[in-house]
Amino acid sequence: MNLKNTIVFILIIALVGAVAYGAIYGVDLGKIKLPTAREKIGLGLDLAGGVYVLLEAQTDETGPDLDKKIDQAMAIIRQRVDGLGVSEPNIVKEGNKRIRIELAGLSDTQQAFDMIGKTAQLQFVDPEGNVVVTGKNVKKSEVAFQKGSTGAEQPVVSLDFDKEGAKSFAEATARLSAKTADQDKVIFIVLDDKVISSPVVRTTINEGRAFIEGGFDVQSASELATLIRAGALPVELKEVQTSVIGPTLGLESLDRSIYAGAIGLALIFLFMLIMYRIPGLIADIALTIYVLLVFGIMITLGVKLTLPGIAGLILSIGMAVDANVIIYERIKEEFKLGKTLRAAVDSGFKRALSSVLDANVTTFIAGLVLYYFGTGPIKGFGVTLIIGIVASMITAVFITKFLLKLFIRTNIVKNTKLYGA
């Protein structure tokens, strides 16, 4: 027995076991408390419960004009949803004329419907609380560029008012610019009773055009311009699909999925042990690392777990097992050619690599297509499938090989029949 390699192998097994235990049951060491993986992973709408709304623009417009209006509507809706306190709402464009809204974990569904459908109120307010102009007076709001103090052009937000708005704005800016303190010169831009910008008036603006400066980058200036443009929803939106999912039903589905996945994983572990003995044991350890790696990536990236996502995860587990099966069958073939244990392992991994790569790359491409073109549950399936494929390649090609060769160097088991000979 090689003591050094044996100790390293045992330490790896102990570390994997400890992390797996912590992921399942959490850690409570008094001052140090770590949640379980289930508590850390965000749940999608179908598991956490909440509201799903699909809105469609009621217009015959097409092209850039419609795209701009849809973007404006999404910005308004996102602004309203933020006021509901929903964690990580999913608001995306679907096709050319539709907006899909998923609000997971929301309890007051009626409040969500009321908030999404109402008309936005945009106001420009002075420090005394007087409304100077409203959204109806803004004819145009877009990103422009002006030279800054360094001489380089910087993004600003350009505003054009109608005749009535230009007059009111000129009167207000003349009055405010004469003030001494900066806090008395502010005009608050308020959307849905929330201040979205508070520029300081430096001079009288009497041409009906104003520029908001504030150290913007192009994206932040574009977002502010979009919100200012959106005094009201720019296009009529009609609900074409609405559903409310109770959290009890969602959590029940999650529990059943976890239970089914645990049974499936246990059967896979047993199958690999029976079929491949020592290499099967190594594959089981690698699969445990694979599952931990997948959940770690999902937690780090903030990926929400959905029922289709669980299906993608289980499928990727199958892909990881398939990779091990291919590798071990190649090792068996090398034994039949009369090679030694270490030579058979090296050659088996080398010969299997192209087959494993081909299978995983094609599935990875399919996952990318599902993620890019899919919506809702299909996208969730694609995300977990992609993550699972990447993790399975890491575990099958690198971790399994490392652990198997490390175990062989321990010389604990010398009988080659237990390795598939």
Question: Could you walk me through the main structural features you see in this protein, from its secondary elements to its overall organization?
Answer:
By secondary structure, this protein is α+β, with helices and mostly antiparallel strands. The protein has twelve helices and 13 strands. The protein has a four-stranded antiparallel β-sheet. Strand 1 (27-29) and strand 2 form a beta hairpin. Helix 1 packs across helix 9 (278-301), helix 1 packs antiparallel against helix 12 and helix 10 packs antiparallel against helix 11. The longest helix is centred in the last third of the chain and has 34 residues, at 377-410.
Short note summarizing the structure:
The chain is of the alpha+beta class.
How do the strands and helices of this protein lay out in sequence?
Blueprint: H1 3-25, E1 27-29, E2 32-34, H2 37-40, H3 45-48, E3 50-57, H4 64-82, E4 90-94, E5 98-104, H5 109-117, E6 122-125, E7 131-134, E8 138-147, E9 153-161, H6 163-177, E10 188-191, E11 194-197, E12 209-212, H7 218-229, E13 237-245, H8 247-276, H9 278-301, H10 307-336, H11 341-373, H12 377-410
Antiparallel strand pairs: 1-2, 3-5, 3-13, 4-5, 6-7, 6-10, 8-9, 9-12, 10-11
Assembly annotation: single chain
Radius of gyration: 30 Å
Q: Which structural class matches the secondary elements?
A: alpha+beta
Helix-strand string: HEEHHEHEEHEEEEHEEEHEHHHHH
Low-confidence stretches: none
Number of strands: 13
Percent in helix: 55-70%
| Outline type | elongated
Share of residues in strands: 15-25%
Instruction: Give the termini separation.
Output: 21 Å
